[in-house]
Amino acid sequence: MKTMNRRSAIAFGVTAATVAPLFATATFAKTKKYGPNEGKEIAPGVRVVEVGTGNSDIPAYKSISIVDVVFQPGAHAPQSVMDTDMVCTITSGAFTIKKADKEFKLKEGDMYTCSKGKTDEATNTSKEVGVHRIAVLVPA
């Protein structure tokens, strides 16, 4: 077995400190329950709740906004054109996602991306409230 030197210990500590907030955010997403009137309605049974915003170290983006899109069972967000790049995580429920060139199904824990200028459409196919946690990448 290899012994841990000082440099390895520091690297391990920095990594643990960096990852810990990500696990806290994931836990929050799974446990947070939204009321029927929280956020802004964007379609029948679909509401957007702002979670937070932070600066980005990615040169192409000045900031990242996190939002939860909350879908009631069976709710549908109609096709829309994305105005920025996004990374989406399903934190509860199950969904059918339709893009111009494909359709796919996702469940809790799955991720997908949306590109600026492309279309996207989502339907909650589960019998529970479904949530998309979206990292909206705001261009620099």
UniProtKB/TrEMBL annotation:
It comes from Mesorhizobium montanum. Residues 1-29 form the signal peptide. This is Cupin domain-containing protein. The keyword Signal applies. The keyword Signal applies. Keywords: Signal.
